[in-house]
C-alpha cells in the first residue's frame, strides 16, 4: 500500500505508512521503504499501520493481563529485579510514576520462544510466596499464568515479524545486501517490556523525561491514553496519538552504531496532559549476549569513516546506568564514539 496521506500526521511531522500485505521486492515495498527510511533518518521514528495486534489480543493485553500484573504487591514486583534494564524497573527521579516489567530473552536462534516460559520462571517464586502467605485469591493464580503463557507470547510473536520488516527496510535503504541484513537480524535478541505510568504530579503531565533508548529498534504500542512524544530536528515535540491500528517504531542508540550514524537514535519523552494512568507495551531488540556492536562494513569507507568504535552492549548498559554515563547527555558518544580531530 502507498504511504498514508494523513493531514494530522503531516502536521505532527511523523510519517505514517501502511505495511499490511506488503511483500519484499514489490513496488509497494519500495514506496514504503522510502517513507520509512526518510522518517527514520529525520526523526529516528516512523508510524506503522499494522494488523499484528488485533482487537482480541489488544483487549487481552491491556484490558486484563497488564492491569492484573501491575496490581501485584510492590514487594513481589521488586523481587523480579535482575539488572539495570531487565526484570522489574520501579519509579525513579526521572520517571517517578513509572514502573515496568521486561521478559528477557524472548528469542532463540532467530525463532520466537514462548515468552510465557520466561515469565513463568520469573514468577514461579512469586506464586510460592503468595501461596505460603495465603494472600493470593483463587482467581489471581490463573491470571498470572494467563499473563505468562498466552497474551505476552502472542504479542511477541506478532511483533517480531513487524519489527524485522521495518529493520529490513531501514538497512536496504542504505544499500545493505540481504546477506548482511540476515546476519544483523540473527545477531539480535528480542524482549517485551510492559509499562505502567501513574498519574503525573507535574503540572505539564510529564511522566518520563527526554531520553534515547539503549536498543536497536523498539515497537511501541500505546493504549488509549496519549503519552509518546518525539523530538523534531528543530527541538519541538511531536505527539504520537494512540491509535488501535498504528504503532510507533523508534530507533535506539545501537541502530546509530550499526548504521554508522546514518540513522539517529530517537529522542523521545512521555507526557500525558490528560493526567490519566497510562499503559504501553514495547517489543525491543538488542544484541545477543556477548555480541559487540559496530558499524556495518558496507557503511564504512574513505568518505564515511567509522563514527563509533566496537560497542560492548553489556558494558555500555553498566556505563550508562551505573557509571559515569549517568551524568552525561550523550553517554553513547562518550563510551564508544570515535574522537574527532582538532
From TrEMBL:
Residue spans crossing the bilayer: 126-147
Pfam families documented for this protein: 2OG-FeII_Oxy
Stored InterPro entries: IPNS-like_FE2OG_OXY, IPNS-like_sf, Iron_ascorbate_oxido_reductase, Oxoglu/Fe-dep_dioxygenase_dom
Keyword hit for Signal: no
MF terms (GO), sorted A to Z: metal ion binding; oxidoreductase activity
Keyword field: Iron, Membrane, Metal-binding, Oxidoreductase, Transmembrane, Transmembrane helix
Domain Fe2OG dioxygenase positions: 188-287
Family from the record: Belongs to the iron/ascorbate-dependent oxidoreductase family.
Protein name: Fe2OG dioxygenase domain-containing protein
Organism encoding this protein: Urochloa decumbens
Native organism taxonomy: Eukaryota, Viridiplantae, Streptophyta, Embryophyta, Tracheophyta
